[in-house]
Amino acid sequence: MSSTTPRRVGLIGWGAIGRVVGGALAAGEIPGAELVCVVDNRPLGDSVPAPQRTLEQALESCDLIVEAAGQGVVREWGTTILAHGTDLLVASTGALTDETLAKELLDTGPGRVYFTGGAVGGLDLLQAVRAMGPLDDVRLTTTKLPSTLEQPWMDEELLGRMRSATAPVEVMAGTARDVPVKFPKSTNVAASVALAVGDSDAVRVSVVADPAARHTSHVVEASGAHGSYRFEVRHLPDTANPATSQVVPYAVLRSLAALAGRTGQIL
């Protein structure tokens, strides 16, 4: 593909992330990328700025698919998209805690798979450090409002503690392999950190419910023979979907801009 040929983008999902990404693409805010169609399992009518298509139809007209619909889409369609020769930009990185799926995505072609950093920064630096040798200690603490962390598997005792909390409550502690499975809409950051350091089991994750958490926060701490690193981000939750941060669709757009060849991007 020449640098003057725009990326033909199909967008999967018209939710809190998809609406921002699709609106920006349709408005021409990402030079070198055009929105060709939207894929969603609900009838969207005139609410979308591009034709609604099935995924099979999207593959016939797009060279890049953007996933903004959840981990299930990555599991069900990821390798199909790549095997068709279409590139895939994944927002729901939590799906990658399944090592078999992750390997299939990385090994399948001729399409190429890309991942957005989403709500956390510093992943590029962690990847660079990883090239010098493994990190000895990597920790992530994610803090959100209790209501955004409630899950069907939780028992009444834990739900009661979360709902009546007047101070922060640790909801779960585990690895970046375990935690995203339990919180599929709230902990993509854990999987993104694991992707950056190359080992899901090496990343210790603490999920905290805080009734006073006006912002969603992620604190990444890592250390090794070559140095120590700490990144802390605090985001306002998305008003339409408090389980995600307002910044996430803009992280997707930044990744899209890089894939479309915009100059000046930090890679």
Automatic annotation (TrEMBL):
<dbReference type="InterPro" id="IPR020626">
    <property type="entry name" value="Asp_DH_prok"/>
</dbReference>
<dbReference type="InterPro" id="IPR011182">
    <property type="entry name" value="L-Asp_DH"/>
</dbReference>
<feature type="domain" description="Aspartate/homoserine dehydrogenase NAD-binding">
    <location>
        <begin position="13"/>
        <end position="107"/>
    </location>
</feature>
<dbReference type="InterPro" id="IPR005106">
    <property type="entry name" value="Asp/hSer_DH_NAD-bd"/>
</dbReference>
<feature type="active site">
    <location>
        <position position="218"/>
    </location>
</feature>
<comment type="pathway">
    <text>Cofactor biosynthesis; NAD(+) biosynthesis; iminoaspartate from L-aspartate (dehydrogenase route): step 1/1.</text>
</comment>
<keyword id="KW-0521">NADP</keyword>
<dbReference type="Pfam" id="PF01958">
    <property type="entry name" value="Asp_DH_C"/>
</dbReference>
<keyword id="KW-0560">Oxidoreductase</keyword>
<dbReference type="InterPro" id="IPR002811">
    <property type="entry name" value="Asp_DH"/>
</dbReference>
<comment type="function">
    <text>Specifically catalyzes the NAD or NADP-dependent dehydrogenation of L-aspartate to iminoaspartate.</text>
</comment>
<feature type="domain" description="Aspartate dehydrogenase">
    <location>
        <begin position="166"/>
        <end position="252"/>
    </location>
</feature>
<feature type="binding site">
    <location>
        <position position="188"/>
    </location>
    <ligand>
        <name>NAD(+)</name>
    </ligand>
</feature>
<dbReference type="InterPro" id="IPR036291">
    <property type="entry name" value="NAD(P)-bd_dom_sf"/>
</dbReference>
<dbReference type="Pfam" id="PF03447">
    <property type="entry name" value="NAD_binding_3"/>
</dbReference>
<feature type="binding site">
    <location>
        <position position="119"/>
    </location>
    <ligand>
        <name>NAD(+)</name>
    </ligand>
</feature>
<comment type="similarity">
    <text>Belongs to the L-aspartate dehydrogenase family.</text>
</comment>
<keyword id="KW-0662">Pyridine nucleotide biosynthesis</keyword>
<keyword id="KW-0520">NAD</keyword>
<protein>
    <recommendedName>
        <fullName>L-aspartate dehydrogenase</fullName>
        <ecNumber>1.4.1.21</ecNumber>
    </recommendedName>
</protein>
